[in-house]
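Researcher: Structure for this, please.
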Amino acid sequence: MENSVSNDEELYSTIIMLKFRTYCISFDPYESIAQLPSLFTKDFGSKVTDYVTLNDSNHNEFEVLVQQKENKFYFTRGWYELYKFYNLRFGAWVTLVYLEPSRFVMRLKDRFGKDVAIPNYDPPRKYILHREDSQHHNNFGVARFREPLSYHHEKGYFQHAFVKWLNVSDVTSGYLEISFNGFGELVMTSDCTEFSLVDDSGHKWLCTVDLVFDSNKYFKIGGQWRNFCDCRSLREGTIIKIGAPKLGINSIVYITLKVF
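Model: Predicted structure, token format:
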């Protein structure tokens, strides 16, 4: 009997704790950022980290930048990825449960209170942001509010670039082929084994690099290239532009689908 009472008390305490860590915010399809509730700011504003991960019930993960303006906290870069992933064209209500300074779990309901369908992928999708320098951080460890909020490639990222029309193999095999001659030789070299591929939305994809000696000498780009193709719905005939800021080995390479 005593054990039963003890278990009930522990369960009740857990429920109360979760309620005091639960917050609801709206997802506006016309805004790329979202303000966190003032209650959250008072409860955990001094603890939350610059980058947090939002997990859904199917273990999909979204990394989001937290920025502060005056006494208000915002989800900025990475937040709008939810629009495309869950098809939130009419908006939604997002319930967040704060687990730790860098992690939340979330539930989504549409404007009518119905659960939003959660895509189920094997493995689950993970959207990781390319992290900028930390020179604009404040005393609380949260990035200061800066304009523009949306990510964009700088012109200097494409000092050396090439354009490619993707073929069937590029989007189905899990590998992208880049000719050794020209761009490949200039920005990767034969010693390159991996790089981070940063896309138009500021997400990064860790890619492996292998130099293949076949009838044609080329670089075979693997790793998360397949994930990138799946997440961005790349198809045969899609035009991409890949760029690098310098000659020699580049640890970060940039890609855009906005070629023209």
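Researcher: Any notable elements?
Model: Helices lie at 2-19, 38-44, 81-86, 168-172, 180-187, 225-231. The first strand starts at residue 22 and ends at 27.
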